[in-house]
Amino acid sequence: PRSIFMSRHGESQYNVEGKIGGDALLSVHGQTYAEALPGLIKNNIGDAPLTVWTSTLQRTIQSAQYLPYPKLTWKSLDELDAGVCDGMTYEEIEKQYPEDFANRDEDKFNYRYRGGESYRDVVVRLEPVIMELERQENILIIGHQAILRCLYAYFHNFKQADLPYIKIPLHTVIKLTPKAYGCDEERYTLPI
Ligand code: F6P
């Protein structure tokens, strides 16, 4: 059976600073994760063929750099666009845009950042990615938190309202193996 592997990029400099969005490079920890990924994947699939999908953002491309497989970058896999809040911390957003901050808490799935996107927008832009995923063999997606929540929710049939709260930790590979109904799941976390 074929599997869909998904992982967030390794820890980025923005993750360290608590800032959202952006196009930061990996931190030292994130770089260590990138170096450890090929061994983890090889242990799991041996010599089976695999294709790696990344977003166009540096942190995913950097995280995939040591993986010896064909790679494809998808603009549709870029992180949820936080619009005017891009590059801010949650504390800064709460201070500068208190109403928005409260609205997001009220309905996280539908809340759209000023000049940016909502989770609902992201679900729509991921449709072609999901169509292609359904046709492919083994794929490893190196993605972003909000993006992987949407993909994960699709394969596990999560309700929209729950989707923005799914836990997708850093430095963890989630392996989904679709069955007739639903998906088997395994998680591998690297202690980095
Ligand atoms: O903090 C990392 C990050 O990927 C941000 O770039 C993004 O805005 C956020 O997570 C998404 O998580 P949430 O929807 O819970 O704010």
UniProtKB/TrEMBL annotation:
<feature type="binding site">
    <location>
        <position position="59"/>
    </location>
    <ligand>
        <name>substrate</name>
    </ligand>
</feature>
<feature type="binding site">
    <location>
        <begin position="8"/>
        <end position="15"/>
    </location>
    <ligand>
        <name>substrate</name>
    </ligand>
</feature>
<comment type="similarity">
    <text>In the C-terminal section; belongs to the phosphoglycerate mutase family.</text>
</comment>
<protein>
    <recommendedName>
        <fullName>fructose-2,6-bisphosphate 2-phosphatase</fullName>
    </recommendedName>
</protein>
